[in-house]
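Our preliminary data section would be incomplete without showing what the modeling component actually yields. Below, a chain of 304 amino acids is followed by its predicted structure, encoded as tokens that our downstream tools consume directly.
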Amino acid sequence: MQVLVTGAAGYVGRAVVRALRTAGHEPIAMVRPGAAPGDLIDGACEVRVADIADAEGLRAAVSGVDVVCHLAGLGRARESVLEPLPFFRVNVGGTVAVLQAMAAAGVSRIVFASTGAIYGSPPRQPMDEETPDAPPHPYASSKLAAEFAVDAQARAGLVGAVVVRLMNVAGGADPEPTRLIPRVLAAAMGESVLHINGDGTAVRDYLHVSDAAAAFVACVERCPAPGASARYIIGSGCGTSILDVVTAVERVTGRPVRRVHGPAAPEPALLIGDPGKALAELGWAPRHSGLGEIVADTWRAVSD
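Predicted structure:
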């Protein structure tokens, strides 16, 4: 199948392009003007330049494809609290624009990248697809609003859709230095000191970027016909604390992690996704999301 990947120059987008190509599909990488697609331009992948705010460019970008994997968007939750409107403009408005371009071009299947952050801090863990939505910040709210647009288009019979709620993606050449594993590795390399809120026992679900990409391939291959939609939590199903990450980094690198503990922050103690529905329905499983493999893979990327 021909699959357009929006946000293809991004961290997860690059991995999705590679995974689609490996699975025998024909990925088409959509990048915004001025982006640096890097290894996407290797002769094996067509690149189309368009901005999700440019209706005409979007129509040209989606023309002739079978499925759209929509990954383009803004993703820094803390920034969304300080400046919420850009997140709604890009994440909601951009998704509406992609859906409109698909309708104009006769493209009827979409796989949409969303976030497990939409569930907020539910008391029952792990979270599954029946956990009530409670977005805790504008980023999560914008993704939920975009999901509503995708679902409404499906209910109208205009698209078949899969919504992918990702947990914490990690591993490989992670370009986001504010995420935990890059921060811990930076401390191990002596570039900084790791600041930990509280005692370091807060637990999160980390998913290797290659496993996230494999899930998108599975969703593309099982995307329903127009009029239907599905939603999956894509995570490892395992809980990892901050101190677990520190220990793993010290073991993999052989270096101590310089750290200081500050006051506890008002954040959930435990957030784990249950990928059981995805395992049962998609033929997918997280194969590279053990903490040791994630840390070792990220260490190789930053130390090369």
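The longest strand covers residues 109-115. The CA atoms of residues 29 and 47 lie 5 Å apart. Preliminary results of this kind motivate Aim 1 of the renewal.
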